[in-house]
């Protein structure tokens, strides 16, 4: 039970550390040498040139204009200045809608907080239950529901508030769903011609003894979609080839490193040892060694390429089928093709750069088996992850280290180091696990067989949310591992569960306030510093970069990271909704989180992140669903809490809330979700008609030529992107791009791709603010 | 705890009563006067003429050929003789697949019973737990799991058996799903051209200020399906008109009654009183009175018809849109048309006779609200239905009757009557409720807004199953009302629930054996007697029938009644699966039920029932799902039972069973369900191509002219069917029908309809066995 002043101190510390991060960012940001770390987005869009090119030598690396240091927070208004339509042009719809999640948080919680502080806090404050209870209590508890005596009529206020908050949340959610759906449809409608609009991915093509996959696909679609079928592209199993190409790239980096070393110090040729980790073995000339290795790999790659193109076994039973019209593609994607619903599976093709090629060939039966395996594995991961960690912890103590590595003994026995290790070791296994958790979840999703990066990230996000819900939210409220909770709940009566959790909720308010400040305030402020990319960029810059192109590759703009970012936001929605009625003092902290994150991430999206794909906000149904889940959880917990408070007469009124919320969710799902899943024929027809009128003699076949070629084939002949570019430049554009883009957004991602239309881009306001 | 001999006595009684029913049926059936009650199917198919037409007078009504009495059970082999393909031609796929549910029961339970009796019964029998327990027990209990001492290793047998039974059930289910899906697709593929193959039902057409619904539909589909759209038919709101037509039909019956009366006794014109129930009021000539009334109604009907056709407000925002090809219709039904997913909702049009016209105009928002209301209402119906019944029961006691109707007092006070009423009254309210339950559930489904009779019946069936599961199955095991159970379960820990139920399962075995014999043996045997239709037919025949056509209308062949029959079968699946491991002695009783029902219903389907619609076995996914549910329930209850038996080490092994079963269900759902929901494009294209090759100059437009006219318009001009017939006869047939059908099956149902192809009908074997 922390007092208000305790929380004040914690707040001060976190605010100070946040400010420290901002200050560091402000200083690092305006150094020209860091320009590519803090403004990579503008480089990839070709709107900013290297500041190293001109000016005095010192000013190439340090900013000597001291006036610019004074305005160290001016990035904040600048980040807010870009209007939303331009933001969509600049960074894509995914990013723009992702920012709306933070706005949604503000829209939901600001009115709720106002209402709670004008009505509920006075009701709570004017009691003296705690004073009479003889328990120790703090001012914060006086503001919470704990201050109301059992069986009091004042609980009606909380009941009414619960209704008001639910209705307000649902209203905002519905409006937001409506807006996002409209934005998505508008975005899709105003897009330029892209191959994925005309293309359908066909999977599980049944084997045929007489025909090759390619012939089979052609015949099937010529028969069943005679008026619309145009062409197709088979999918090759190029997993081995991509391994080789990746290997080659790595070796090339080493070669560059040694060549740079040699150039800087031409007197001494660099040598290396060929054995394990370069620690022993024969000493050879490094440049020659790697040059030879690259030559060997290039030979292997060309052999493998030939093998793939000539061997029919390397063709997977999947194909990209292109149609003459968007209408034809929309029809094919939404219908069932064959009697056997597990063959000839069609779906809208993802963007080429969104594809996860490795999973294209998994047959149907394996998909269902894999799903079962992953479901079971995830269950064990969530509820039993503490077991292996506890084992590691028990092994990784000082005694066993001393036993296995006796030569470390004298160092360990130093008192300071010993206590450090003893305090540090038990936590490290857990910490490492938590750092790798998103990766583990991503591997699970990949194993499960999703075929686009966007769906992989969405799936990982829902798993991560569930894990956090169980292990962070419930785990903090009911201390104990998830398995202990599970065991506890199984042995408890059904209506006891919300009671148990509900009753301990008010007591955990201060814990969560601290959590919000550390994770939500300081954590978000740290995000803007980009410490890891900063270090890596400078390392690469020093060791590997030779040409301007290398420098461009050394940039790591990163992405939003939907699979980790969104579940984090959702945790705040959950906390806000759960504590809105119970301990409203938590709400301002959450509002600060949402506001701060909005500004920070808007800045990052404008200046830094470069999305790998564009799913046109396909994740919104997930976001909506999880807020609904949080709402229902908050209602159930309030019900449990009130029933321990002997306000049982409120139970029937509280039960109707989740029923209504579930119904609301179903309504929204039916009303808005189809916009995120299917492409309406009316829209497709409209775009087709418009296009036919504008360009009657369009040659679409050429347009599709290599759109869905495996990226590895493009990159085989080295420096792939430029080759792909040439094909793309031929493409006529509906809306002329005003920006003279050197490398427009979509190309910059790994797998080559497609272009977005950038209507009426306002060059003035979209320039980065650079003093 | 009944002994074996108790059960033997009960079995004898029920077998005897079943035989009595069969005997009565055998005698009544061969009386010519009952021919239309026991063979209506053949009359509606036009394959049997009235036996009244020829022969001696006495033999018109009574069968005097005494040899035929000797072979009184010969209908059984006859019922089994018709091969399945012919059965499908004769009675439709729905009926044929419905019979397969009984066969499925046999396929599942016969091997399970064999295995149980060879392995599990000896294991149970060779213990002496009960003898040492000091409890009273019977031989039946010695055969059950109760005879095994707690913590015994013998429970491994039951565990292995549970696995074996689950795998066997799943294997049979999967095979059956596969077969039924193939049958459905074959049936659809071999069907003749029917309007519903080319037609899509469009609902929620948005209002347009400038265009009428008809123009709007035409423009929308001309734009969005330009190559495929052919014509459309708007839907009129003719609910009032159908009321008038129904009223007229009723009045006409009365007129017929009085005319008959007058003809039989021409000396005295029949009079009637116009007041309440004909008890008082002015006395008028009945024939004149009703003739005048009919005239007035006919005038009203023609005014109303005119009003509907001229008033644009009576056009509902729904339409039937017909396409040039099946491919076009399949595409339109499976795709989303408009940005707003709640307008222009398309789905495959049901057969005209399957349509439930009243629900065609419900807008989307109301649909979701109605669904919520029905869900809540059904919840209360299931768990609180005892409350109003208890109130009625408390009111309907002898004292209150004597108070309200004092003149009955002397009669009631007679001792015999008094005790009869006292024993009878409390039960009657419950009995009446249970009789009306299917109707109540059907009204709920209608309120919910389903638009076809088949979906109404499917929905009612699932509700009825749920009600039975809660109130019959759980209600019998844990005595007490559903609400008490619910309350009990809420206050109980989650893993206690299967324990509580599981532990009382073995004790209820004898109760369920009796239940099966009464409901499943005698009840099924009573079904074949058709007592209610028999009485009604003879009443109508005596009072109303004038012409042969009237006699045809007096026949009430009835239908299978999916909404009541299927849940009953499912209860037996549930009992069988739950008791297979616990008390295998129950299995033979269930096998007898399945065998007997199969024969009885096969006979009824061949000779009696006339389906109102043909959904091509669209109900199979529901059947499959419910058996899976029964399987999972049985696994959970076994887990609960074994954990009370201190065989807790088996729990982890038992938990994997439901996980695997759920996974199996999901696999089947994805693999087979689409065949029941969507029409594959390949199939559509194949039929289209075939048809185009055979009849290049087909005029489809005329074919659709009145296919989806509201049935009431057809019947307005009296004797609707013949008019509809004429239109139909024009239709060219792919496979010539060998039977010269006077009124082929589909026409005979209420709403007019379509024809089925009857390839290679074998006239020999399909004739009814008539000695």
UniProtKB/TrEMBL annotation, chains A, B:
GO terms for cellular component: plasma membrane. The chain crosses the membrane at residues 6-28, 101-123, 155-173, 372-396, 416-443, 464-483, 571-601, 623-641. InterPro entries: Csc1-like, CSC1/OSCA1-like_7TM, CSC1/OSCA1-like_cyt, CSC1/OSCA1-like_N. Residues 370-642 form the CSC1/OSCA1-like 7TM region domain. Residues 197-359 form the CSC1/OSCA1-like cytosolic domain. GO terms for molecular function: calcium-activated cation channel activity. Keywords: Calcium, Ion channel, Ion transport, Membrane, Transmembrane, Transmembrane helix, Transport. It is found in: Membrane. The keyword Membrane applies. Pfam families: PHM7_cyt, RSN1_7TM, RSN1_TM. Belongs to the CSC1 (TC 1.A.17) family. It is a multi-pass membrane protein. Residues 743-765 have a biased composition (Polar residues). Residues 735-771 are annotated as: Disordered. This is CSC1-like protein At3g21620. Residues 7-176 form the CSC1/OSCA1-like N-terminal transmembrane domain.
